[in-house]
Protein backbone atom coordinates (compact mmCIF):
# COMPACT_ATOMS: atom_id res chain seq x y z
CA UNK A 1 0.00 0.00 0.00
CA UNK A 2 2.75 2.49 0.97
CA UNK A 3 4.50 1.93 -2.34
CA UNK A 4 1.36 2.73 -4.33
CA UNK A 5 0.75 5.83 -2.23
CA UNK A 6 4.21 7.12 -3.09
CA UNK A 7 3.64 6.65 -6.80
CA UNK A 8 0.16 8.18 -6.63
CA UNK A 9 1.64 11.37 -5.23
CA UNK A 10 1.03 11.02 -1.49
CA UNK A 11 3.61 12.97 0.50
CA UNK A 12 2.93 11.48 3.91
CA UNK A 13 2.92 7.99 5.41
CA UNK A 14 0.15 6.98 7.79
CA UNK A 15 2.54 5.44 10.32
CA UNK A 16 6.18 5.20 11.24
CA UNK A 17 6.02 1.51 10.31
CA UNK A 18 4.88 2.37 6.76
CA UNK A 19 7.67 4.94 6.52
CA UNK A 20 10.30 2.38 7.63
CA UNK A 21 8.95 -0.24 5.23
CA UNK A 22 9.17 2.20 2.35
CA UNK A 23 12.76 3.07 3.27
CA UNK A 24 13.67 -0.63 3.45
CA UNK A 25 11.92 -1.29 0.12
CA UNK A 26 13.93 1.60 -1.36
CA UNK A 27 17.18 0.15 0.01
CA UNK A 28 17.66 3.02 2.46
CA UNK A 29 19.24 2.52 5.86
CA UNK A 30 16.58 2.77 8.54
CA UNK A 31 17.63 0.82 11.63
CA UNK A 32 20.91 -0.44 12.96
CA UNK A 33 21.12 -3.84 11.28
CA UNK A 34 24.71 -4.58 12.17
CA UNK A 35 28.14 -3.49 11.07
CA UNK A 36 28.13 -2.07 7.58
CA UNK A 37 31.30 -2.57 5.53
CA UNK A 38 33.17 0.47 4.20
CA UNK A 39 31.62 1.66 0.97
CA UNK A 40 28.42 -0.31 1.60
CA UNK A 41 26.25 2.81 1.98
CA UNK A 42 26.06 5.97 -0.12
CA UNK A 43 25.89 9.49 1.36
CA UNK A 44 22.11 9.43 0.85
CA UNK A 45 21.81 6.28 2.96
CA UNK A 46 21.31 3.85 0.07
CA UNK A 47 22.63 0.43 1.04
CA UNK A 48 24.24 -1.37 -1.88
CA UNK A 49 22.79 -4.69 -3.01
CA UNK A 50 25.61 -6.95 -1.78
CA UNK A 51 25.62 -5.18 1.58
CA UNK A 52 21.85 -5.70 1.89
CA UNK A 53 22.41 -9.42 1.31
CA UNK A 54 25.06 -9.51 4.05
CA UNK A 55 22.80 -7.66 6.49
CA UNK A 56 19.80 -9.91 5.78
CA UNK A 57 17.68 -6.95 4.73
CA UNK A 58 14.15 -7.15 6.24
CA UNK A 59 12.24 -6.36 3.01
CA UNK A 60 13.17 -7.42 -0.51
CA UNK A 61 14.43 -4.32 -2.30
CA UNK A 62 14.64 -4.59 -6.08
CA UNK A 63 16.92 -1.58 -6.50
CA UNK A 64 20.51 -2.03 -7.64
CA UNK A 65 20.99 1.73 -7.93
CA UNK A 66 19.85 4.49 -5.60
CA UNK A 67 16.16 5.21 -6.42
CA UNK A 68 16.13 8.60 -4.67
CA UNK A 69 16.91 10.68 -7.80
CA UNK A 70 13.98 8.97 -9.56
CA UNK A 71 11.66 9.55 -6.58
CA UNK A 72 12.77 13.19 -6.41
CA UNK A 73 11.99 13.73 -10.10
CA UNK A 74 8.62 11.98 -9.76
CA UNK A 75 7.58 14.01 -6.72
CA UNK A 76 8.81 17.24 -8.29
CA UNK A 77 6.69 16.59 -11.39
CA UNK A 78 3.62 15.50 -9.38
CA UNK A 79 3.76 18.52 -7.07
CA UNK A 80 5.07 20.96 -9.68
CA UNK A 81 7.88 21.68 -7.23
CA UNK A 82 5.54 23.07 -4.58
CA UNK A 83 5.48 22.22 -0.93
CA UNK A 84 6.95 18.77 -0.57
CA UNK A 85 10.23 19.67 1.16
CA UNK A 86 8.81 19.41 4.72
CA UNK A 87 6.79 16.23 4.08
CA UNK A 88 7.71 12.66 4.96
CA UNK A 89 8.62 12.02 1.32
CA UNK A 90 10.60 15.26 1.23
CA UNK A 91 12.69 14.06 4.16
CA UNK A 92 13.49 10.85 2.27
CA UNK A 93 14.53 12.82 -0.81
CA UNK A 94 16.73 15.11 1.32
CA UNK A 95 18.30 12.06 3.05
CA UNK A 96 17.07 13.17 6.47
CA UNK A 97 15.68 10.17 8.37
CA UNK A 98 12.67 10.83 10.61
CA UNK A 99 11.99 9.57 14.12
CA UNK A 100 8.74 8.00 15.32
CA UNK A 101 7.80 11.30 17.01
CA UNK A 102 7.10 12.86 13.58
CA UNK A 103 4.10 10.56 13.06
H/E element sequence: HHHHH
Give the end-to-end Cα distance, rounded to a whole number of Å: 17 Å
Low-pLDDT windows of residues: none
Shape: globular
Helix percentage: 40-55%
- Mean model confidence by pLDDT: 85
> Number of helical segments?
5
Radius of gyration, in Å, reads: 13 Å
Question: How does the helix and strand content classify structurally?
Answer: mainly alpha
Beta-strand proportion: under 5%
The strand count comes to: 0
* Major sheet description: none
Folded structure, characterized:
19% of the residues are buried. This protein has helices at 2-8, 16-25, 49-55, 68-79, 88-93. It is 41% helix and 0% strand. It is globular. With 103 residues, the protein is mainly α.
Write the layout of secondary structure elements.
Blueprint: H1 2-8, H2 16-25, H3 49-55, H4 68-79, H5 88-93
Q: Brief description of this entry?
A:
The protein has 103 residues and is an all-alpha fold. 41% of the residues lie in helices and 0% in strands. The longest helix has 12 residues, at 68-79.
Key structural traits:
41% helix; 103 residues; 0% strand; mainly alpha
Amino acid sequence: MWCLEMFSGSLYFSSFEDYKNFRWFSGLLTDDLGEIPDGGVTNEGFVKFNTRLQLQWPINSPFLENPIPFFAALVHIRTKGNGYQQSHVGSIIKAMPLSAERF
